[in-house]
UniProtKB/TrEMBL annotation:
Residues 1-23 are annotated as: Disordered. It comes from the Bacteria. Residues 13-23 have a biased composition (Polar residues). This is Uncharacterized protein.
Amino acid sequence: MDKNGPAPLHPENSASTGGESLKNTKSTFAAEISSAERLLSAPVFPDLADSTLARIVQDMNQNGFGMVEKCIDEAHLSSLRAFIMQKVVEQRGEYGPFDPGHSGSDSLLNALSLSSEFNRSCRTIYRLGTGKTGPDQTFYHILRWFSGDTGEQHAYFFHYDSYVLTVLIPAVMPSRGPMGDLIMFPNRRPIRNTYLTNLFDKVLLDNRLTQRLLKKAMLLKLIKPVRVQLEPGNVYFFWGYRSVHANEPFDHDQIRATAVFHYVNPHADSRIRAFIKR
């Protein structure tokens, strides 16, 4: 450093260099804000026509599932994928279930849960499928990802959901090898009148003997499930409460991540359920 102090600044050079830098920074920041505003302002779910919703219900009843193709915008999917990969790194694990409502994120799932279009679609599907008015209640939603050995460990776990309607939104799917397809035996039971009969169904299904028999019979092709190859951007609807379903395995070095929305637990007010859950 000069003993007389730092060299004086040259305003003309400073203005030119700093001005350009500031201008570029402002331009970049403005572009980022504009991109974020477009993402937040764009509808996260389309306003589906009643005829489309009726077709979905018909497909659910006849084929086991209904689907809307290219329903989720790529910008929203990219945001969700980035959030998932962040969680994968943070947790350093092979299995990660987490509730976005308690994760501190402004994720696609939270946006969907607040979307009037998504809420209306689920209520209408429920009404058309059950003959009852779809209640205005919050969703139970969760984001689940698998990789490595846990993907295989969770494969072929056949189960019923506790909620009538299940909405599946694939976010990250394997890029090669087995795809971890959704498999189901659709609409195998009605909506039970009591929690005890529902619990009896689950006990019959969720035990080692039944699980082994189902898996072996399926691998030997003695029984044939409905197989659904999931594609990011599409949204899949099925009667999770009524359908026996599971996932197939996929390669250990791949990641499979799905967002799941559940709507209407018919036994939410059961005292027996509340006692067991204590």
